[in-house]
Design brief:
The chain contains 9 helices and no strands. With about 180 residues, the protein is an all-alpha fold. It has 2 domains: about 70 residues, no CATH class; about 100 residues, no CATH class.
């Protein structure tokens, strides 16, 4: 919970990927309250019992959402998918607005690789932005498993700059630091 709150403030892309990781971790723990508490909460340092209870409740709220949305075995919470849709809408705006000039240059390097990524992910029904998130998440999982080192590096090198810049712009827009429609 504490990490998620920090990531949400600082970097929307990292926040989304972190929540996807939490979803998979909760599934691996079979949504067991005891396993969640002992694995994810009990060992948190620097927190009193009330803070630990808040952290535990946050995990259990995610469990409840996964169950409510029918995503006990796979899939991602609507919350994160809506954030990705927001990022994709920003992407579309940046592709046409003057403020998006630098982003378009960064994105052009990624655009050539999108058909290859789409073939690997094998899903034509998602936006390019969601495709990038799925590719980054897959690379993260492969990195954890210790396999596909070159493919991981290639994917991250191609996708990260565009998603990083898109995420940074999203944060600035959200905080009111930039106006998309101001020249």
């Amino acid at each position: 919970m504490l990490i998620a709150l920090q990531k949400r403030k600082e970097n929307i892309a990292e926040y989304i990927l972190y929540l996807w990781q939490v979803e998979d971790l909760l599934r691996a723990l079979q949504f067991s309250p005891e396993a969640i508490y002992s694995t994810l909460v009990a060992k948190v340092e620097g927190c009193d019992e009330q803070q630990k209870e808040n952290i535990f409740n946050w995990y259990m709220q995610i469990v409840e959402l996964l169950r409510k949305e029918g995503k006990e075995s796979k899939g991602h919470l609507e919350h994160t998918l809506h954030l990705i849709a927001d990022l994709h809408n920003l992407h579309l705006q940046l592709m046409t607005l003057p403020i998006g000039e630098h982003y378009r240059t960064t994105y052009a390097r990624l655009a050539m690789e999108l058909p290859r990524l789409r073939d690997i992910i094998d899903n034509d029904d998602i936006s390019d932005t969601e495709l990038c998130f799925r590719a980054l998440y897959a690379a993260m999982l492969y990195r954890i498993k210790g396999s596909g080192k070159q493919a991981i590096e290639d994917t991250i090198a191609v996708v990260s700059p565009a998603i990083g810049e898109l995420s940074a712009i999203y944060g600035k827009v959200e905080r009111g630091e930039i106006d998309l429609y101001k020249d």
